[in-house]
Structures are given as C-alpha cells and as structure tokens.
Amino acid sequence: MRPHFLAALGLTIGLVACNNSAEQPTAPEGVETPAGTDTGMAGEQAVASLQNAEGQPVGTATATVSGDVVNITVAVQNVPAGQHGVHVHMVGRCDAPSFESAGGHWNPTEQTHGLEGPEGQHAGDMPNLAVGADGTGSLDYQLQGGATFAGLMDADGSAFVIHAGQDDQQTDPSGESGGRIACGVFAQG
Description:
alpha+beta, Immunoglobulin-like, 189 residues, two-stranded antiparallel sheet
C-alpha cells in the first residue's frame, strides 16, 4: 500500500507545481501598480466593428496586447478610395452621422497631434490608411504616446474613427483630416 501512497503524493505535488507555474505574478501586498502600467495579459484583444454614417459595416479595428504595447490592425471595405486619417478616440461612443460623440483623439499624456509633430504625438495617432480603388485597405500599427490596453478600455471606453481626408501628421488637434466618415467602439472579446 505504501507505493500507492507515494505515487499519489508525487502526483499531488506535481499538479500543485504545474498550477503554480501557470499563475501570473502579482504585486506584493501593499504595493500598488504604477499609474499607466498596462495590466492586461499578452494576447488580450478588443475589436471595434466600424460602420459608416448610414449604419453599414465597413470593417474592423482590432487592438491586441503584445508584451507591454498595444497593436492596432485595421481592415476596411466599402470606404472611399484615397488616404484617410485614422485615430483612436477617447470616448467609446459612435453616434451617427458625425461621430462627434467619440470625442477627441486619445491623448493620456497631453501631447500635440501628429506622428511628425515636434512635441510627441497622441496615443491615438496613427499613419494614414490607404484605401484602393476597390474600397479596401489595411493597416497595422503599434500605438505610441503612452498607450496602454487598460487606458484603451477605461471606464468610458474608446472608439476608432476613419476621417474623410488625409492626416498631415502635424497640425493640432487632428491633422486637418476632415470629417468623420466611419466609427466603431472597442469591445473586449
């Protein structure tokens, strides 16, 4: 009977060890996570289903945590051809037809606008989205400017907006990119 006891004891110890190795480290008791720290786990996602002012679907914007950064992947169809400013906006609300309810660009570090701006950039600033004659386009970009997944999914959420025109990447507050032609609210999946 003693061999069965030792085997069971070994199995129990092995299961406990495996379970403990899968746990994520936590801050010691009494130590707070610093403000702005991304507490999301790698691979966590949020998706914004993009719609135009008429409520027709035009694509998706997917935010994915990769290490300590947030990557945005955009795929669109049925969008007018040309260069379009695209940005993460600070409020998770998309009231058509103007989508002004999404607020301004996501900017937790209070920078000026533009990837080429001399004083940094908004966390929600991105390169222009090139849309072909067939109405399709895609873009993959790693957010900068203090972007964290926790900030993206804060209490009032955030939205992804496609603008009518090209972003000049310098002019504050929106790069002269024109009206908002499509919008989607990020929802964690």
